[in-house]
Amino acid sequence: MIVLNNVEKRYGSLEVLKGVSFTVETGEVLSIIGPSGSGKSTILQCMNGLEPIQGGEIIVDGVSVHAKGTNLNTLRQKIGIVFQQFNTFPHLTAIQNAALGPRRVLGAPKKEAVERARVQLEKVGLGDKLDHYPSQLSGGQQQRLAIARALAMEPSYMLFDEVTSALDPGLVREVLETMKLLAEDGMTIVAVTHEMAFARDVSTRVAYFDAGNIVEIGPAREIFANPAHASTSAFLSHIQH
Amino acid sequence: MSPYFVELGPQSLWYLLEGAGRTLWLGIWAIALGTILGILLGCIRTYSRVGAILLAPLIDITRSVPLIIQIVLINSALGISGFFWGPFVVGVLVLGVYTASYTSEVVRSGLQAVPDVTKRAGRALGLTGLQNFVFIIAPIAGRIAFPGWINVVLGSLKDTSLVAVIGYVELLRASQIVITQTQEALIVLAVAGGIYFVMCFAISAVAKRVETMQR
Ligand SMILES: Nc1ncnc2c1ncn2[C@@H]1O[C@H](COP(=O)(O)OP(=O)(O)OP(=O)(O)O)[C@@H](O)[C@H]1O
Ligand SMILES: [Mg+2]
């Protein structure tokens, strides 16, 4: 379970998160939607401690992420993240990309690390691209590689940050399919997304985020069918047309 | 032909090759020193603001003052202070620091060219800062910096000729000596130029191979 409690985050004088609170239950798929620049990526990067916060706290499985004694490297082992921009390691092949975490972070023997990597690459449909470098993969394949790389750590949570937004329209589907499979497998997912079909059909809950705060959060069907706030319905009608 | 002059012969060629050997020997040591020091300085300049400020004068001076002046000045300064290390050691030191200065620049731009999101992806996996540097940042930066570093290496190899001013008989100095002996300037310079070309071409060829290997 991930709990955000009144989280405040500033970049210099820019207030990005203004007291954000919500909970991610184990096994749920939470989609975060909202306008560009509202702080959605920032929320995800605070969850695994990539970004410090200035107020409130984030608790992952009982551990306070930003508390002084917290070992972030250990904590991050159970939180996989895939970024908005392409972020595979360009100097490593697909299998080396995915084996790096198990090998260097978990200390698995090389053979075992490679095996774990291969299993995940096959799962995301890259079983025939093991020895390809990222430069030899399409954008969609690179994002699936990034997913496999995160999964090879066998995380408890997966954070997706608009993983399809940098893709050509034709490549979006294969990545969403991969995420959907993962959701059906029971993975706990927090997905920032502009793909309303994914938010509506795959996620259990949807949060509408705007101007540094959660405007409303609830079951996906409810948010889409009758949003409680005017700004939510404005955003939805804007994005769906 | 005047009796004071020697005929151009195998011994002249041998003399040139010996000079080429000393060019390589000096070049290898200066480049090795310059590369190790340059990587170190490049990292400091990238990751430490204070270090960058402290190192700025050294970098500016070594890159702005002509190398030949640096060699003469440092050699004299060392001599005045009582250090008679000989032209080879002084040459390695000055050319090494000069190489380091340029290498640090190449290293720094390589490190800065690694995308932020790639670094974050490494840390997000749970790699420590050091692991992230060793397994992600350094290899990517190294590939970016490699061609620029090869340029520095080729430049430094040719700049070994400047160490002649303090009495190191490398290839260019050797060819001047042979020219004075034989009065065959054109042939000797052509041979010397050919030897420089072979050395630099070999380095470029190896570099190209390495680049395609690492893609
Ligand atoms: N490292 C940073 N330094 C300064 N400002 C930043 C930094 N990262 C993000 N910001 C600013 O914080 C705000 C929120 O950024 P964030 O990337 O979280 O938005 P977002 O909701 O993910 O937007 P998008 O949908 O465009 O990805 C933006 O105004 C952005 O310019
Ligand atoms: Mg974003």
Structural features, described:
The complex is a heterodimer of chains A (241) and B (215). By secondary structure, chain A is an alpha/beta fold. Chain A folds into two domains: 1-78 and 158-171 and 187-241, P-loop containing nucleotide triphosphate hydrolases (Rossmann fold, 3-Layer(aba) Sandwich), CATH 3.40.50.300; 89-154, no CATH class. Helix content of chain A is 37%, strand content 25%. In chain A, the strands form two sheets. Chain A has a six-stranded mixed beta sheet with strand order 6-7-8-3-9-10, with helices on both faces. In chain A, strands 2-1-4-5 form a four-stranded antiparallel beta sheet, covered by helices on one side. The model of chain A has no long low-confidence stretch (mean pLDDT 94). Chain B has one domain (5-214): Orthogonal Bundle (MetI-like fold). Helices cover 83% and strands 0% of the residues of chain B. Chain B is built from eight helices and no strands. In chain B, α6 (129-159) runs antiparallel to α8. Chain A binds chain B through residues 45, 48, 50, 73-74, 76-77, 79-81, 83-91, 100-101, 104-105, 133, 135, 146, 149-150, 153, and chain B through 115, 117-118, 120-128, 131, 135-136, 139-140, 143, 214-215. The complex binds adenosine-5'-triphosphate (ATP) and magnesium ion.
Number of strands of chain A: 10
Taking Cα atoms only, what radius of gyration of chain B do you get, to the nearest Å?
Answer: 21 Å
Count of alpha/pi helices of chain B: 8
Strand content of chain A: 25-35%
Q: Summarize model confidence as the mean pLDDT of chain B.
A: 94
The assigned structural class of chain A equals alpha/beta
The largest interface is: A-B, 29 and 20 residues
Helix/strand/pairing category of chain B:
mainly alpha
Shape of chain B: flat
Number of domains of chain B: 1
CATH class categorisation of chain B: Mainly Alpha
- Order of strands in the sheet with most strands of chain A: 6-7-8-3-9-10
User: In angstroms, what is the radius of gyration of chain A?
Assistant: 18 Å
